[in-house]
Amino acid sequence: MVRWLVRAIALGLLATPARAAEPIEIGIGYLHHAAIRSPLSLVEQPAENDGIAGARLAIEDNNTTGKFLGQHFSLDEMRLKDGDDVTEAAAALAKRDGFIIADLPAAEMLAAADALRDHGTMLLNAGAIDDRLREEDCRANVIHVAPTRSMLADGLAQYLVWKQWKRWLLVTGSHAKDRLYADALRRAATRFGAKIVQERTFEDTGGARRTDSGVTLIQRQMPVLTQQAPAYDVLIAADESEVFASYLPYRTWDPRPIAGSAGLVPTSWDAAHDQWGAVQLQNRFIKLNARHMTALDMQAWTAARMIGEAASRTNSGDARRLFDFIKGPDFLLAAFKGQPLTLRDWNLQLRQPILLADGRMIVSISPQEGFLHQVSELDTLGVDRPETKCRLH
Amino acid sequence: MWRDRLLPGLAAWLAAAAPAQAYVAYVSNEKGNTVSVIDTDSWTVTDTIKVGQRPRGIEFSRDGKVVMVAVGDDDTIEVIDTTAKKIVDTLPSGPDPELFTQDAAGKILYVANENDNTVTVIDLEKRVRLGDIQVGVEPEGMTVSPDGKILINTSETTNMAHFIDTAARQVVANVLVDARPRFAKFKSDGSELWVSSEIGGTVSIIDPARHAVTGKIEFAIPGLRREAIQPVGIDITKDGKTGFVALGPANRIAIIDATLHTVTKYLLVGQRVWHMAFTPDEKYLLTTNGVSNDVSVIDVAAQKVVKTIQVGELPWGIAMSPR
């Protein structure tokens, strides 16, 4: 009863007058590279503002709320060029901003985190999906908004197992991140009772991504790559480098569906997602940016909204206070996924459902029904508390 | 399984049923693009009216002559003549209208436009737009205080209940509530404002005079994970003693002691229960069950589900004839 009263009084204080005199300024840094990814599909070429466009929308959303609370948010972009030192850039941003949303490769993410360890600046990882950043290389000043490879693999695996497509042919690219994705898929198969009937590798021998007579060649290559396989239900491609997976649908030796890096793809967001009010966010994004919203855009939106949400709940712009609130038990974010997103306190990873998209529609959303968990069904996706290698501090 | 459970209740109801006054309920079917008309005497669907795309918010005019239904994907509000049972007019609602409310006289309509963070004010007689009020991100829940002085709008991503002075058409206060506030309801004496938070999983009790949250209704259902409890629609009896809260994918209506603000009972209804409406005599409460495509009828005094009525695809909103 007393607790209830205390809480009620605390809540009462949050009511605010319509206008505040001087708004609190909350600066959010955004650290990233110029877009370099070049996928096989011409329609999936990333926009020059991939990611940061989502953060910009979240800043608008935060400011709409902020005008009622006397808070003003701004985005402070820093785009790294080849040869730029990420630690210097991060330190420069940290002088101005209490928060930095980072879309960086794992090694640079770690370097930035270590450089800012004593700055009191909070990093939000919006881009890197590497499990190691949440496990053996976790850092107490980094919140992970992007899902991990293992969360993505588990989200896909749960659906395939629910569908009774349990015999997988796994084809892996020859780059390091392809092998990491294959590791996550193997782990998912073991966890959820699928069987990898055979593994194959696609060697990246280089060459141009687009040639005028490319189709003829690919049409001959892909059946050869997939012929004489043991009986399987679905071909899983681990090809984060985007070298071959997009060539597989409709070209396999046996008529089989494709999943993983092409076909049915696990992702944090897709322009086709329309459940739980998502259409409103998609429409706002299209209005602001004149293009569809990608997973990276959504991860950056979510990161900036987490800061906005913490600022409105604590009525503060103090980075340390906001960071503590986000890490605390009362934090949750509504992000058009049908349930609150919360933070795993053992490694500061955002819990989130995983969408399964086919490029035109959302096929399903994991966790799937029946995959139970004693704390949160979202913890059936990715590395759970008992298995974690993360020791914060 | 739960249908077996309601059979005894149904039998009791049939035995006790005096020839009740017949009312008419209009149900908007979000996916079916139709409105189902339910007769509360026979508890059957008597008409199905084709409407525009994605019908959700639905209300009777004060005189009962027309029903207004927001068809969000067509960016308008359609007006259904309740005698002819067909669309006779449209209102200039602004883009993507979802929920709306009207003043006590039935002359002014206030519409939440989710796509551009505004509340649109419409003169119902002249059919013209009187103005817009800027509110938070994704405005949704709408209600007018019993004295008519304050309009409440909830904004889903800003997570606030905005208090708007209806005379000045200006925001006078903002109250932060839990995540994704979807619906707002005053007690009939104006002493309390209840706001449901779908993702936060609570109903905030707000003191409208102080603009302050004074308590929260929390929900816990054994065997159901917390995330599945998503409060949406609310109604409160006229005496202010009993509240009803629809819990979305928890498939239940929570019955609330409206003085203590605690749950006294959970009633299993259909899947993904959205909104509700009392019959004017408050003998029955009808709920729309989105996923199971039906409407549950609750005997308010007995606190039991006594009937289920099949309607169109994905029923969402419901409006009851005033007499």
Protein described:
The complex is a heterodimer of chains A (393) and B (323). By secondary structure, chain A is of the alpha/beta class. Chain A folds into two domains: 20-147 and 270-352, Response regulator (Rossmann fold); 150-204 and 213-267, Response regulator (Rossmann fold, 3-Layer(aba) Sandwich), CATH 3.40.50. Chain A contains ten helices and 15 strands. Chain A has helices spanning 2-12, 52-69, 86-96, 106-115, 149-162, 176-192, 214-226, 278-289, 295-314, 319-327; strands spanning 16-17, 24-33, 71-80, 99-103, 122-125, 142-144, 167-173, 195-202, 234-238, 258-260, 265-267, 343-344, 349-350, 354-357, 362-366. In chain A, the strands form four sheets. Chain A has a five-stranded parallel β-sheet, sandwiched between helices. In chain A, strand 2 (24-33), helix 2 (52-69) and strand 3 form a beta-alpha-beta unit. Chain A is globular. Chain A starts with a helix and ends in a 27-residue tail after the last strand. The model of chain A is unreliable at 8-20 (pLDDT under 50). Mean pLDDT of chain B is 92; it is low at 14-19. In chain B, strand 10 (118-123) and strand 11 form a beta hairpin. In chain B, strands 3-2-1-28 form a four-stranded antiparallel β-sheet, with no helix packed on it. Chain B has a four-stranded antiparallel β-sheet with strand order 4-5-6-7, with no helix packed on it. Chain B has 323 residues and is mainly beta. Chain B contains one helix and 28 strands. The radius of gyration of chain B is 18 Å and the shape is globular. Helix content of chain B is 5%, strand content 52%. Chain B has one domain (2-14, 26-320): YVTN repeat-like/Quinoprotein amine dehydrogenase (Methylamine Dehydrogenase, Chain H, 7 Propeller), CATH 2.130.10.10. The chains are: A alpha/beta (393), B mainly beta (323). Chains A and B meet through helix 1, strand 1, helix 2, helix 8 and helix 9 of A and strand 15 and strand 19 of B.
